[in-house]
Design a protein that fits this description.
- The complex is a heterodimer of chains A (332) and B (266).
- In chain A, helix 3 crosses helix 4.
- The mean pLDDT of chain A is 94.
- With 332 residues, chain A is α/β, with parallel strands linked by helices.
- In chain A, the strands form four sheets. Chain A has a seven-stranded parallel beta sheet with strand order 7-11-6-1-4-5-12. In chain A, strands 15-14-16-17-18 form a five-stranded parallel beta sheet.
- Chain A is elongated.
- Chain A has nine helices and 18 strands.
- Chain B has a nine-stranded mixed beta sheet with strand order 11-10-9-12-8-1-6-7-13, sandwiched between helices. Chain B has a two-stranded antiparallel sheet with strand order 2-5. In chain B, strands 3-4 form a two-stranded antiparallel sheet.
- Chain B folds into two domains: 223 residues, HUPs (Rossmann fold, 3-Layer(aba) Sandwich); 30 residues, no CATH class.
- The model of chain B has no long low-confidence stretch (mean pLDDT 94).
- In chain B, strand 3 and strand 4 form a beta hairpin.
- The chains are: A alpha/beta (332), B alpha/beta (266).
- Chains A and B meet through helix 4, strand 7, strand 9, strand 10 and strand 13 of A and helix 4, helix 5, strand 9, strand 10 and strand 11 of B.
Chain lengths: 332, 266
């Protein structure tokens, strides 16, 4: 297995720039490569993306493999798969990291199976075992009720990484690196699953995945009307509204607001959980929040085991005063 | 149209967190006996996706599940919902695998079934949350895949799939046969009807072993793994929730706001 060297990360591009997950993976990949005494490479795929290679270097890549092709303008499963497969053959890395994004979730498993190698999805911690020099891949399992650390028995060792779980390096424009153009031999005939169009759904306000503040409602809010108050609070805080499963199943709010194992995984700075008991299925989607605040009338609710601050009380009585005070404090 | 749906039986993920404990010494999950086994929720939605196509176009739905511990009334639920056939892969040699060995066994079972236009899987199983078996099966079979579907339609020999992305959805056209993984946005699965449940009693599952699949013991289960579980543990909880004390709920609300301000969270 000594033929496999270094770390390769997929540097996703969004709106003509390296995506936040790309910077996080470069930070993580750079750190792991240093521990191994090897190099960190980036894979950069897209149309007209070559100029971003220097940016990837500034954020920690020693080498950037670029497949710059008009066919890669948007994500197409079969083409990205072929391009990444080609880059892995060329780079022969011992570790490959992708983001736990809509691209990574689609691409990573197919890529791992194509390379006949193991994969851990949605890792929140990565490190190198000092003795075995293997990649330790730690991820939540059982809806966040436990964490498991895996090692790969094949090469490359592959993982996808949850957003915001890793820290980018400071940008350093003086860093030097090598840019390698890769001819991936892509052709339109390789596309079997073709994205024919993309529909942006207008979400009022901020996307859950991007929100720094999320106000979540659960079964305990009792009905759709209460979500108006939650929306008001979210608006004051510049955040978004989410929900646990019961409000979505009962159609109080759209299913797209669901946070949890069956739903979205969010990582806000502040999560305000209202009438949410904290079932593991829900916590799986929000346990990555930096701070959880709970308002719940049941003092035994599991959410209080997860929260940093809490009020035991009926939200109908607590929330209006809370919202009024918040509005006063943030001046909106 | 011939459809195959892969489902997994898991401990009910809606059970209280305290029901899921870790035995650190053996590195195993210890699930409280009160937790009922269920079909993994995304897999039920995969069944629902297939049933909607059957409603529209007719066809046959074969349900495929790997695991020795399948409880008959649980694993038969897709039949009660309207699926036609149930195949269980049950063999010691197939147990203890990872995503790789699971996909390997399921892909061989699908090859043995032979005729299929669409394969459905849930986007991930609610126990190990690995989220790769569906795509893995597609790669092993050499068929295209579309992940995270919220809607699936079939016309002119291809499937048109709405794939969930963070800011909306993509419309993906895929040639058949294809594999599709289903996300929760597809909507709630139907309840079994009484007639469905009664009909199910007459359907006996077909049971296949590793030998039936024509796979060597060295390729599946524990022996076929590509990853190894090193450690299983409970995440450290700081358990330092500061509960706001106040004379009235309204005062508690105000104090909470002030506390968050103090902690620079507002």
């Amino acid at each position: 297995m000594s033929d496999y060297k270094g770390v390769l990360v997929l540097a996703e591009v969004a709106q003509g720039k390296l995506a936040p997950i790309a910077l996080e993976l470069l930070g993580a990949g750079h750190g792991l490569a240093q521990q191994l005494g090897e190099q960190c490479s980036a894979a950069l795929l897209g149309n007209g993306v070559t100029a971003l290679a220097q940016e990837a270097i500034a954020y920690g890549a020693d080498r950037v493999y670029v497949v710059d092709d008009p066919l890669l303008q948007d994500y197409q499963s079969d083409l990205y798969l072929a391009a990444m497969d080609k880059i892995i053959t060329e780079a022969s890395p011992q570790i490959v990291l992708l983001g736990q994004t809509s691209i990574g979730r689609d691409l990573a498993p197919r890529l791992a199976f194509r390379r006949q190698t193991g994969l851990s999805m949605d890792c929140v911690e990565l490190s190198i075992d000092p003795e075995t020099r293997l990649l330790l891949q730690t991820r939540p399992v059982y809806g966040g009720n436990a964490r498991a650390t895996f090692v790969s028995e094949s090469r490359p060792q592959m993982a996808t990484v949850r957003a915001k779980a890793m820290t980018p390096l400071e940008r350093d424009a003086s860093r030097q690196g090598e840019v390698v153009a890769v001819a991936a031999g892509l052709s339109p005939s390789m596309i079997r699953a073709k994205v024919v169009h993309r529909v942006k759904e207008e979400v009022e306000g901020i996307k859950l995945e991007d929100a720094q503040v999320i106000v979540g409602g659960g079964r305990g809010v009792g009905g759709p009307e209460a979500f108006k108050q939650l929306e008001e609070l979210a608006r004051i805080l510049g955040g978004a509204v989410g929900a646990s499963r019961p409000p979505c199943d009962s159609n109080w709010v759209p299913a797209s607001l669901q946070i949890g194992l069956t739903g979205k995984v969010v990582t806000p700075e502040l999560y305000i959980a209202i009438g949410i008991s904290g079932a593991s299925q829900h916590m799986a989607g929000c346990s990555g929040a930096r701070n959880i605040v709970a308002i719940n009338k049941n003092p035994e609710a599991n959410i209080f085991n997860e929260a940093s601050y809490g009020v035991v009380g009926d939200f109908r009585q607590v929330l209006p005063a809370f919202i009024a005070k918040v509005r006063e404090l943030v001046g909106k | 149209m011939n459809m195959i749906v892969c489902v997994k039986q898991v401990p009910d993920p809606e059970a209280p967190p305290a029901s899921f404990q870790v035995d650190a010494a053996s590195g195993r999950m210890v699930i409280a006996p009160s937790v009922n086994p269920v079909i993994s929720p995304f897999d039920e939605q995969a069944v629902e996706a297939a049933l909607r196509l059957k409603d529209a176009h007719g066809g046959k739905i074969t349900v495929l599940s790997l695991g020795k511990d399948a409880v008959p009334h649980v694993i038969k639920k897709p039949l009660a919902m309207g699926a036609d056939e149930l195949i269980l892969l049950q063999d010691d040699a197939l147990e203890g695998g990872d995503s790789w060995s699971t996909a390997f066994a399921l892909a061989h079972a699908i090859k043995k079934i032979g005729q299929y236009d669409l394969i459905f899987c849930g986007r991930q199983a609610a126990d190990w949350d690995a989220g790769q078996v569906g795509s893995g099966i597609a790669e092993l079979l050499g068929v295209p895949s579309v992940t995270l579907a919220r809607k699936v339609e079939v016309s002119d020999g291809k499937a048109v799939v709405e794939r969930v992305v963070p800011d909306g959805y993509e419309v993906v056209e895929v040639s058949l046969p294809a594999l599709i993984t289903v996300s929760n946005e597809l909507g709630e699965p139907r309840y079994p009807t009484l007639r469905g449940i009664m009909a199910t009693k007459k359907i006996e599952p077909i049971v296949w072993t590793a030998a039936d699949l024509g796979v060597e013991a060295s390729q599946c289960g524990v022996a076929g793994r590509r990853t190894r579980l090193l450690k299983l543990f409970k995440p450290v909880k700081e358990g330092r929730c500061q509960l706001i004390q106040a004379d009235s709920p309204a005062e508690a609300g105000e104090k909470l706001a002030l506390k968050l301000r103090e902690a620079k969270l507002l």
